[in-house]
Design a protein that fits this description.
The complex is a heterodimer of chains A (442) and B (260). By secondary structure, chain A is α+β, with helices and mostly antiparallel strands. Chain A folds into two domains: 2-304 and 377-437, no CATH class; 311-373, Dna Ligase, domain 1. Helices cover 31% and strands 26% of the residues of chain A. In chain A, strands 3, 4, 5, 12, 17, 18, 19, 20 and 21 form a nine-stranded mixed β-sheet that branches. In chain A, strands 6, 7, 8, 9, 10 and 11 form a six-stranded mixed β-sheet that branches. In chain A, strands 13-16-14-15 form a four-stranded antiparallel β-sheet. In chain A, helix 2 packs across helix 6 and helix 3 crosses helix 13 (293-301). Chain A is globular, with a radius of gyration of 22 Å. The model of chain A has no long low-confidence stretch (mean pLDDT 91). Chain B is α+β, with helices and mostly antiparallel strands and 260 residues long. Chain B has two domains: 2-85 and 238-259, Immunoglobulin-like (Sandwich), CATH 2.60.40.2250; 93-236, C8orf32 fold (Roll), CATH 3.10.620. In chain B, 18% of the residues lie in helices and 45% in strands. Chain B contains five helices and 15 strands. In chain B, strands 1, 2, 3, 4, 5, 9, 14 and 15 form an eight-stranded antiparallel β-sheet that branches. Chain B has a five-stranded antiparallel β-sheet with strand order 12-11-10-8-13, covered by helices on one side. Chain B has a two-stranded parallel ribbon with strand order 6-7. Classes of the chains: A alpha+beta (442), B alpha+beta (260). Chain A binds chain B through residues 78, 81-82, 88-89, 91-93, 99-104, 219-222, 250-252, 255, 262-263, 266, 269-270, and chain B through 22-24, 48-49, 51, 53, 55-57, 61, 63-65, 94-95, 97-98, 100-102, 231, 235, 240-242.
Chain lengths: 442, 260
């Protein structure tokens, strides 16, 4: 392995140059301006052994199965609320709960087709789930193309043992076909100014699905059509949309949306098109709901959760509030409504005044926050300035669900380039690594 | 029981031609436990395709597209409603839960919270009696001033000014009930006379939804025809639409309800 890494490091610049040429970029809006920046790739892979990944795989499948069951339940019978397992307040007052989805059964019964589960590994080796992303988790394209380019530049580093991760498009295609209600499958992008446009186009190319914008689609007679260059209409049965719920349909949601398709939600409600991922999934990946996922596993599957959450407190509960106030200085507090590494506060980083203000806010709106123990996660080496240096890193694992959840044998490893930071989000300038899952016996 | 003949007319006129106009209309009373709709006639003009559905609250919607260039879009709906106040409109209690929590339009801010604190604490009274009490207190402190608010005015904004129209009365009462976690919903509908659509509030009590009309400070009787119900006015939007062109638009609504 050592030799391999040295070989990889020698090619660091050339692989990054090729990634730039392929347009592997990440767009960021800051101060109202769009900046497109390269997504720095570190050549040293995260390596996960066969046994260890098999454990993660079992845990991830279980977790995603429970999350899908939860979504199916809260948009129909709401048994979990009626049985008092999750306080109704956490379900119905969350911003991710879309009342418009109540009573809708998505094609194939699948809500979260593509789930991005963020994990970290503690110093003691145990894995913790930090976050579930069930709306539009992005990132699978990055390790895939990095693998492709590395294999081309440094073929000798890939002699056996590593599971090929370039099957992601097949898994994705299978999911689209599985839920398709008849007709084409398309990938709906907001356009090239989206943070993940590279990924949209790459998936379209690799799955054979058409890459479309709202102007290519129209709803007529309760069906969705793709309009080709000659004006001919062809039916669409599955839309892998890379547009958030709010902007998906200007007639049903935000009417200011210029990137959505009028009436797509109306015909989705009638079962005439599959939307991937289903609208309303935000109800299950809210940071407040996260706390309850192990309970969901138990409730729906009758099993103990294989993967554990990071130790989390809900100030909503009095005991937890007391604990949070007493231990404020060593906890990380997250605003449940924020994402992308925003709205995250480390108790020890605040001044006395800031701390006082924050605690007042916490007491006024307990439902808005969760608090977690800061996990001292295992550093991973990155290659920087000609040497190896340790950095914080997480792992986004991808679970694709058609008939059943399938875990992609790779994942996006993101790291913080700042040695003092725990925040690895790409939107905050982090970089990425490939994730190698090893075959049995290696 | 009463027999009421209703007619609803809405027209949207555009300053400049509009096209590719996608609409979703929610202005059609439908039969439920308290009203039986018959002899219904609906016309929408112009229209290229249209379809209907029940939304997640069970409200009847007609949606579609008017592709052709037009400067006037109009909707007419008329029929007979046979109403009976005694009908029981059930909601499984866990389904009523969604109506217990504030929405952006019904969020209680400083002024509603302060007013709420000035009310007598809730004793043994049921949800309906409590809502009637709060409605009475609200009406003493709030004035009907037409044109003083708009469709996007929140309960808190209206209450801070202490004035508004039926939508605002309903929203403020919803905000008050929700502070006490009483399941309550916004209702859009029609009442006898000529004018615009009306709005009121329903609270879930004793296994049924019961109406109170804060604009008139009275419980609803069998002269009320329900069009739609939801968490707030946003869920009951009578006409949602997007289109190209159009320029400035003017909407007019005329409702006539008479007993027959």
């Amino acid at each position: 392995m050592k030799v391999t890494e040295e070989e990889l490091c020698r090619h660091s610049d050339s692989v990054n140059e090729q990634l730039a040429r392929y347009g592997v970029k990440f767009g960021i809006y800051k101060g109202g301006q769009f900046h497109e920046q390269l997504f720095p790739f570190d050549v040293i892979p995260r390596v996960i052994g066969h046994e260890e990944f098999a454990y993660l795989e079992r845990g991830l499948k279980q977790r995603v199965a429970a999350l899908n069951a939860f979504l199916g339940d809260i948009y129909s019978d709401r048994r979990i609320v009626a049985d008092g397992v999750i306080p109704e307040e956490f379900v119905f007052s969350g911003s991710g709960y879309l009342v418009q989805c109540d009573g809708v059964s998505p094609p194939g019964g699948v809500y979260s087709h593509i789930s991005g589960i963020d994990l970290v590994q503690g110093k003691n080796g145990s894995w913790y789930v930090l976050e579930d992303n069930l709306r539009i988790p992005s990132g699978a394209s990055y390790p895939m193309i990095a693998r492709e380019l590395c294999m081309r530049s440094i073929p000798s580093a890939f002699t056996g043992g590593i599971v090929d991760n370039r099957n992601y498009p097949e898994l994705l295609r299978h999911v689209m076909d599985y839920v398709n209600t008849g007709g084409h499958s398309v990938i709906l992008t907001p356009g090239r100014f989206n943070a993940a446009y590279f990924e949209h186009s790459y998936f379209a190319e690799r799955t054979g699905a058409r890459l479309v914008t709202c102007e290519d689609l129209t709803v007529e007679n309760d069906r969705l059509y793709f309009i080709d260059y000659s004006g001919r209409k062809e039916q669409v049965g599955a839309v892998y949309r890379r547009i958030s719920d709010e902007y998906l349909d200007p007639v049903n949601f935000n009417r200011e949306s210029l990137i959505g398709v009028p009436h797509i939600f109306d015909i989705y409600r009638k079962g005439n098109v599959a939307i991937i991922n289903a609208p309303g999934n935000g109800a299950a990946d809210d940071k407040g709901i996260y706390y309850f996922v192990p309970r969901m596993v138990k409730y729906y599957l009758g099993e103990e959760a294989i993967l554990q959450n990071a130790p989390t407190y809900l100030p909503f509960y009095e005991d937890d509030m007391r604990y949070v106030l007493e231990n404020f200085g060593r906890l990380v507090i997250k605003d449940v409504a924020e994402a992308g590494g925003y709205g995250v506060v480390f108790g020890d980083k605040l001044s006395a005044k800031e701390k006082e203000n924050f605690m007042a806010m916490l007491k006024a709106e307990p439902r808005r926050f969760i608090a977690q123990e800061v996990i001292d996660f295992r550093d991973i080496d990155i290659y920087e300035g000609g040497k190896r240096v340790p950095r914080k890193a997480d792992l986004r694992a991808f679970v694709l669900t058609g008939e059943e959840p399938v875990v992609w044998k790779s994942g996006l490893t993101r790291f913080s380039r700042n040695p003092d930071s725990f925040i690895v989000n790409s939107s905050q300038g982090g970089g990425f690594k490939d994730t190698w899952v090893m075959k049995e016996g290696y | 029981m009463r027999r009421l003949r209703y007619s609803y007319h809405m027209s949207l006129s555009f300053e400049r031609p509009a096209w590719e106009h996608s609409f979703k209309l929610r202005c059609f009373p439908s039969t439920d436990e308290r009203q039986k709709i018959s002899g219904e006639r609906i016309s929408i003009c112009p229209v290229h395709f249209s379809s209907s559905e029940r939304d997640s609250f069970g409200n009847m919607c007609i949606y579609g597209t008017a592709k052709q260039v037009h400067t006037l879009f109009s909707v007419d709906a008329e029929g007979i409603a046979e109403t009976d106040i005694h009908g029981v409109i059930p909601a499984e209690s866990h389904k009523a839960a969604v109506f217990k929590y504030e929405t952006p339009l019904t969020r209680a801010g400083v002024s509603i919270r302060e007013f709420h604190r000035s009310l007598e604490p809730r004793g043994w009274t049921g949800e309906f009696e409590r809502a009637v009490y709060m409605m009475g207190m609200l009406c003493d402190d709030f004035s009907y001033v037409s044109g003083s608010t708009g469709i996007a005015t929140t309960a808190e904004e209206a209450f801070t000014m202490r004035r508004g129209v039926c939508q605002d009365y309903a929203h403020v009462l919803l905000a008050l009930c929700r502070l006490e976690r009483i399941p309550c919903r916004y209702v859009a509908g029609m009442i006898p006379g000529e004018g615009a659509t009306h709005a009121w509030t329903e609270v879930f009590d004793g296994g049924t939804w019961r109406g109170v009309d804060p604009t008139h400070n009275r419980p609803c009787d069998d002269t009320y025809i329900k069009i739609s119900a939801g968490r707030d006015a946003g869920d009951c939007a009578i006409n949602q639409g997007v289109f190209y062109g159009g320029g400035k638009q003017t909407q007019s609504v005329r409702v006539v309800v008479r007993e027959v």
